[in-house]
Design a protein that fits this description.
heterotrimer, A mainly alpha (354), B alpha/beta (258), C mainly alpha (336), A: 14 helices, C: mainly alpha, 2 domains, two-stranded antiparallel sheet, 12 helices, 2 strands, flat, MetI-like_sf (chain C), phosphate transmembrane transporter activity (chain C), phosphate transport (chain C), membrane (chain C)
Chain lengths: 354, 258, 336
């Protein structure tokens, strides 16, 4: 019992520890903010971000000091961890909220039907007017073609891995799907570019689709694999026991059971490649005119449009406005895809008994 | 070391669902009290209210009083962390910290409460492992991970971990339900030894076990599914198993339901 | 022992054993034309993926070797990128330095914050807040990088002036934080923007890992009288450590290959600058995007060569992440 003596000595035999009142974190936070404002005014710091950082630091230090004095060291550490976690959360919220807020605020300026239905064909980059019609066409065609290539290949590969795959081949495929997931988009672009250099081709929309398909395939394989693994084996066996051939079992039982999850995975992959700029920059080149043929001639694309409005306009406000509006359109498209996909996932989720 | 627990009018909720209602009882120091009853009658919930673990579950809250030698665990200004240090707990499934060695597992609670000299730690770890009848089996591999032990050894490791901080009370939530008969026997023997030093409360599904290890037995029941669990009666174990005062207890013990 | 059997009962049935049985049946009955076609199609798709990977490696290496053979500088050490001159002189030293430094700083900034946010969602936030926060951060992971780039160039860059002035005033003596007052389109700004970009993905993966910490490990710590922070340190962080590491590697991979956000924010020069605050430096991906427009055929091959190096670096990072994940699988398998 002798060893327990120090522990008992530190903590009063009663269970009652001195505790700070419930409102104390708020009070310390308020104090930190006030103090930070004072320091900011006196010190002549003009950036509000710095005020915020000082307030955060004061909050954490203040919490530790006060809690250590009243509640003891362990409790103080606990409170510091809590306050640090909150401060980190708030620090992270600021840029992410600012991103969304700025895009919406500056995007709505020129975002209207006219903007959606006109190209940049007769508008100089520094002039107001024009729109993203040609870019939307380009993006839809490029992403659509990429999906047509990548989705079937990705789903079939996943089917192979889950339903047939044993041995070295499937191990190799699994490994390289992982590797493929990590390929930077610009490297995928360079790969297609090297083919184009060999074949001596000019930029065109479908070249971009090929690069996007490379980026999309591993994502589809991964998500489809996960979904197929959730299909209970009893279902497969029940169907096989009825004498249904394996390929029909897969087509009629396995895939329909997991179709919700597969759709979600494909949609998330589509959302991801829709925002890819780098390969499109290398392979599709961009244009101010409407080009509906993805197999011939340069095309525009929404993310590329944003970049070119920003980079080629020498600081013209009209171009920046268009860039923000296009960014708003792109974010809206990607977000809607994401929300719908997640909705489908929730709605169609196989009941796994969790 | 050991303290008396006095519960009065205790009701516990999960969100809006009332899990147990209006329970009052006294747990004697240096004795083993067993909680028995059918599944879902709230005996585990009640056990978890005794060291304020119930409120860890989302939506969990408690009304009523739990006095530990005259001090209300739910009183104003009581620190739940101090309560849990004073009232140790052993769980249904052995849960040693998987990344820690056997030694570190036993020392974990002590290290929380301040810095110890290595020799002090060594002493406490050895004494606790001996107390849990595990010392001879693990003394040569104290630095190996605790997850490498068998299920029964892991459970005794968890008991060693719990008694290392010298709690007043030891709560055991079906400590043998995941173990084989031989490990179960080892734990039951251990409980018999531990009651010399601690107040022990044990939840068990196994009535023979309750009859073997406990001095007093409390029978819990619920009137219908979805209704809160209640304490039917608490008495000396011998009396509960031979001549209970409530009919439902007798029905349960003789296997007529549950 | 008991536990592992119980686990298999609860988890969705593992496909391995029953499917192996199915497979045997299939190979016996694979004479059916439908089965043969379907197996051929799905196996063909898998093989096609392998062919693509091989083709990427082969074609990049081929074009890169063309470029390097014409290079009159040293490809690894030359501090120049003049591909349009005769003879061309170029090297990747500056790009490798810029890419690695910006990504590592981004990681150092993002990982602690991401872990904190993940803990916030799983352990600290009130329940009414944690669900929506998790959902929003999920969505933010999908925001295209070009939008981060636009925001970085037009919103973040002007905001950096204050911070840069402050850093220069107090830490300028280190050399790393000295600032000559140019536009803050520098490596540090790039790193901060990259950190903001990879924050959601690291947060999401870490959050999933923390959520999987078995309740019983946390209760073990609680029952010993641990405070919330001590519970996290004793059971949540050790359990989640390898998951967090692989999440960080994932973020690192993204940061290494990020093109547009760097291209919009950085004002590149082709040299290595001791100061993180003065404009200058460059990264592989940014250099490709910026130099591509003016590059001749040989210049494009040179860019492809630099892309090949980037490819190899990201492969190494992803490989490391895989090794860590595999170890984690072994580890949790032993304790399941």
């Amino acid at each position: 019992m002798s060893h327990s003596a120090p522990a008992m000595g530190k903590r009063p035999s009663t269970l009652r520890g001195a505790t700070l009142p419930k409102w104390s974190p708020w009070a310390i936070a308020a104090g930190a903010v006030v103090l930070a404002v004072v320091i900011g005014l006196v010190g002549g710091l003009d950036s509000k971000v710095q005020w915020g950082l000082i307030a955060g630091i004061l909050f954490v230090l203040g919490t530790y000091g006060i809690a250590a004095r009243v509640e003891g060291r362990r409790q103080a550490k606990d409170r510091v961890a809590t306050s640090l976690v909150w401060v980190c959360f708030l620090i992270a919220v600021v840029p992410l909220a600012s991103l969304i807020w700025t895009t919406v605020k500056r995007g709505v300026k020129v975002f209207d039907i006219y903007f959606l239905t006109h190209s940049m064909g007769v508008v100089a980059d520094s002039e107001p007017g024009g729109g993203i019609y040609h870019a939307i066409i380009g993006t839809l065609e490029q992403v659509g073609l990429a999906t047509l290539i990548a989705a079937p290949i990705g789903v079939l590969t996943a089917v192979y891995l889950v339903e047939y795959g044993r041995g070295k081949l499937s191990t190799a495929i699994t490994f390289f799907v992982d590797v493929m997931t990590g390929i930077p988009s610009i490297v995928a672009g360079l790969f297609i570019l090297s083919l184009m250099l060999i074949l001596d081709l000019e930029p065109f929309g479908f070249a971009g689709s090929l690069a996007l398909a490379i980026l999309m395939m591993p994502v589809v394989v991964r998500s489809t694999e996960e979904m197929l693994k959730l299909v209970p084996n009893e279902l497969r066996e029940a169907s096989l026991a009825l004498g249904v051939p394996k390929w029909r079992t897969i087509l009629k039982v396995v895939l329909p059971t997991s179709i919700g999850g597969i759709t979600t995975g494909v949609m998330l992959a589509v959302a991801r490649i829709t925002g890819e700029t780098a390969p499109v920059l290398l392979l599709v080149w961009g244009t101010n005119f409407i080009n509906t043929n993805p197999f011939s001639g340069a095309q525009a694309s929404l993310p590329l449009y944003i970049y070119q409005q920003y980079a080629n306009s020498a600081g013209s406000n009209a171009a920046y406005d268009r860039a923000w509006a296009a960014a708003l359109a792109l974010i809206a498209f990607v977000m809607i895809l994401n929300m719908v996909a997640r909705g489908i996932a929730r709605w169609k989720a196989p009941k796994t008994g969790r | 070391m050991a303290k008396r627990i006095d519960v009065s009018g205790l009701t516990a909720y999960y969100g809006s669902h009332k899990a147990i209602e209006d329970i009052s009882m006294t747990v004697e120091p240096r004795s083993v009290t067993a909680f028995i009853g059918p599944s879902g009658c709230g005996k585990s919930t009640f056990l978890r209210t005794l060291n304020r673990m119930h409120e860890v579950t989302p939506g969990g809250r408690v009304e009523g009083k739990v006095l530990l030698d005259d001090e209300d665990l739910y009183g104003h200004g009581i620190d739940p962390v101090a309560v849990r240090r004073t009232i140790g707990m052993v769980f249904q499934r052995p849960n040693p910290f998987p990344t820690m060695s056997i030694f570190d597992n036993v020392a974990a609670g002590l290290r929380l409460n301040g810095s110890y000299k290595k020799s002090e730690l060594n002493d406490v770890v050895e004494k606790s492992l001996k107390g849990a009848n595990l010392w001879n089996e693990v003394k040569d591999r104290l630095n190996k991970p605790g997850s490498g032990l068998s299920g029964g050894q892991q459970q005794r490791l968890c008991i060693a971990r719990a008694i290392a901080v010298e709690p007043q009370v030891l709560l055991m939530d079906e400590p043998c339900s995941a173990l084989d008969p031989i490990s179960t026997l080892a734990i039951e023997d251990l409980i018999g030894e531990l009651k010399e030093r601690f107040t022990i409360v044990i939840v068990t599904h196994n009535m023979q076990q309750a009859a073997r290890v406990s001095d007093r037995t409390a029978f819990f029941n619920l009137s219908a599914v979805g209704q809160p669990g209640r304490l039917i009666e608490i008495d000396d174990t011998e009396r509960i198993f031979s001549n209970p005062s409530v009919q439902a207890t007798e029905d349960y013990i003789s296997g007529r339901f549950g | 022992m008991d536990i592992s059997t119980q686990n298999t009962d609860e988890a969705p049935p593992p496909t391995s054993q029953p499917s192996a049985a199915l497979q045997k049946r299939a190979s016996r009955g694979a004479t059916r034309p439908g089965d043969r076609i379907f197996l051929g199609l799905s196996r063909g798709s898998g093989i096609f993926l392998l062919v693509i990977m091989a083709a990427i490696a082969v074609f990049l290496t081929y074009r890169a070797s063309l470029a390097i053979s014409k290079d009159h500088g040293n490809f690894l050490t030359t501090f120049e990128w003049n591909t349009n001159t005769i003879p061309p002189v170029f090297g990747i030293a500056v790009l490798a330095f810029g890419t690695v430094v910006s990504s590592i700083i981004a990681m150092a900034l993002a990982v602690p914050v991401a872990v904190a946010i993940a803990l916030f969602i799983t352990h600290y936030a009130p329940r009414r807040l944690s669900g929506p926060v998790a959902y929003v951060i999920d969505l933010l992971a999908a925001v295209p990088s070009i939008v981060y780039g636009l925001w970085g160039a037009l919103v973040l860059v002007p905001h950096m002036n204050g911070l840069f002035g402050w850093l220069d005033k107090y830490f300028g003596w280190t050399g790393i934080f000295s600032w000559q007052g140019g536009a803050p389109r520098s490596m540090l700004t790039v790193s901060i923007l990259l950190a903001i970009m990879i924050l959601p993905i690291i947060t999401n993966v870490s959050r999933e890992v923390f959520r999987q910490v078995p309740q019983m490990h946390e209760e073990a710590a609680l029952a010993l009288g641990a405070t919330r922070w001590e519970v996290i340190r004793m059971s949540v962080l050790p359990f989640g450590r390898s998951g967090v590491i692989s999440a960080s590697m994932l973020g690192l991979g993204r940061a290494l290959g990020e093109t547009m956000a760097v291209a919009t924010v950085l004002s590149p020069t082709f040299d290595i600058n001791a100061s993180l605050l003065d404009p200058g430096g460059g990264t592989f991906a940014q250099n490709i995007a910026s130099k591509f427009g003016e590059a001749t055929a040989d210049g494009r091959d040179a860019l492809i060569a630099s892309g090949l190096v980037l490819f190899v670096i990201t492969l190494l990072v992803n490989g490391a992440a895989r090794v860590i994940i595999a170890r984690r699988a072994e580890y949790s398998g032993a304790n399941a």
